[in-house]
Write a structure and sequence with these properties.
globular, mainly beta, seven-stranded mixed β-sheet
Length: 120
């Protein structure tokens, strides 16, 4: 069955960095677009970044220039490099699989999430 396992979250200071990883299994990773989404306390789920292939990516405006999404199709891993973290980046971060190859296709699976807390 499809499994998405996030890791790499933790506590970071403002201006610091974290790299999130999502290990995917149970499907052919390279055939699907993938995204990262986050949910802060009391707020809804928002997509932060997505990737179909190396040239087709999406970033929420507030993370552009700070976050970089990438994927390792051979090892079925999705990454999110987060630099210059801000307190407003604090949230539970989820890895999402889209139903097909396009970033506009709806997501159909989500991992359990990894907590990111940015605080001094």
């Amino acid at each position: 069955q499809v499994q998405l396992l996030e890791s790499g979250g933790g506590l970071a200071q403002p201006g610091g960095s974290l790299r999130l990883s999502c290990h995917a299994s149970g499907f052919t990773f390279s055939n699907y677009a993938m995204s990262w989404a986050r949910q802060a306390p009391g707020k809804g789920l928002e997509r932060v970044s997505g990737i179909a292939n190396d040239t087709n990516t999406y970033y929420k405006n507030s993370v552009k220039g700070r976050f970089t999404i990438s994927r390792d199709n051979a090892n079925q891993i999705l990454y999110l490099q987060m630099n210059n973290l801000k307190p407003e980046d604090t949230a539970l971060y989820f890895c999402l699989r889209h139903r097909a190859w396009g970033l506009n296709d709806p997501s159909d699976y989500r991992g359990q999430g990894t907590q990111v807390t940015v605080s001094s």
